Amino acid sequence: MLIGDVAQRSGVSARMLRHYDSLGLVRPTGRTNAGYREYSSEDIQRIFHIESLRCLGLSLREVSRALDDPGFTPSELVDDLIRQTRERITAETELLTRLRRIDAVEPAGWEDVLQIVALLQALGSKSAGKRQRAALSSADDAPMPVEALVEAALNETDPNVAGALRWALARSGDDGLALLAEGLGSPAAEVRKRAIQSIVEIPNGQATALLKDALTHPDIVVGRYAALALGTRGIAEAVPTLIDMVIEGTNDVDAADALSALASRPALTDQIATGLVDRLTHGSVEPPARRRLTQALADIPGTIASRALADLTHDEDRTIALTATYILGIRNAQ
């Protein structure tokens, strides 16, 4: 079979077949009387073998070894090809992500594109200072994909850079909230914590709705951050979690401050006072927790809190009795 027929049947160009011949990879078995290359069926079969191995990513040199070296074993080469392919896929995926993020910003011109690329590179820098400057500049007029900010915020370990990223996200409005909500579902506790910390700093209704949902999150740390933030926003749903925090002694001072802020609203005063008193009288609450609950009553206005404090002046726990007496003295003097 002449070279043109082989090229048509195999899909390999005549030029490539001549290249194979020059490399000694596949030489036609014969020649016609006119000197043209003439391929046998075995030659054509070898061409198909070559193309099959090339489609796996083998170089022509590796193909030659695979076909001609009797001692050649494919396992090591295949493992290497798998590694190279994974590296290539990773690189291509990163490129695709970068392009998609640039496209999402809808750059007006190449200057915007170059600026976005520079910011993305800075966010991925090993230098904390560069990452922080990138976060701060992204909050200005510089275009920046919110997705990149969220990814950086969820993975940042430096506290200063993390603060700058949360500030930038807060300035971006609710664009990143859906991605931050996904972060709350991460299997990594640190990522969940960074997600809720970022949501807390976004002061809008959608963020508040996410925080309400987070109160019942399986991760208790997420629920506590949500409760403290909701307390400052005057949301009554946070009260039970805040009281639990006082009892458990976890950020209990902040929780008591949040309860105090909520109790300044007349509609919530009695609810909060009753909640604290109910837990104080519960037999399973340990003495240290009862003391913290007593202290929390100090800044809760109203008659329910005052009557409870009066009763506590006679408590068997001397520390509680003295604390209640002191608090009542201050309240009566006001």
UniProtKB/TrEMBL annotation:
<dbReference type="Pfam" id="PF13411">
    <property type="entry name" value="MerR_1"/>
</dbReference>
<dbReference type="InterPro" id="IPR016024">
    <property type="entry name" value="ARM-type_fold"/>
</dbReference>
<dbReference type="GO" id="GO:0003700">
    <property type="term" value="F:DNA-binding transcription factor activity"/>
</dbReference>
<dbReference type="Pfam" id="PF13646">
    <property type="entry name" value="HEAT_2"/>
</dbReference>
<dbReference type="GO" id="GO:0003677">
    <property type="term" value="F:DNA binding"/>
</dbReference>
<dbReference type="InterPro" id="IPR047057">
    <property type="entry name" value="MerR_fam"/>
</dbReference>
<feature type="domain" description="HTH merR-type">
    <location>
        <begin position="1"/>
        <end position="69"/>
    </location>
</feature>
<protein>
    <submittedName>
        <fullName>Transcriptional regulator, MerR family</fullName>
    </submittedName>
</protein>
<dbReference type="InterPro" id="IPR011989">
    <property type="entry name" value="ARM-like"/>
</dbReference>
<dbReference type="InterPro" id="IPR009061">
    <property type="entry name" value="DNA-bd_dom_put_sf"/>
</dbReference>
<dbReference type="InterPro" id="IPR000551">
    <property type="entry name" value="MerR-type_HTH_dom"/>
</dbReference>
<keyword id="KW-0238">DNA-binding</keyword>
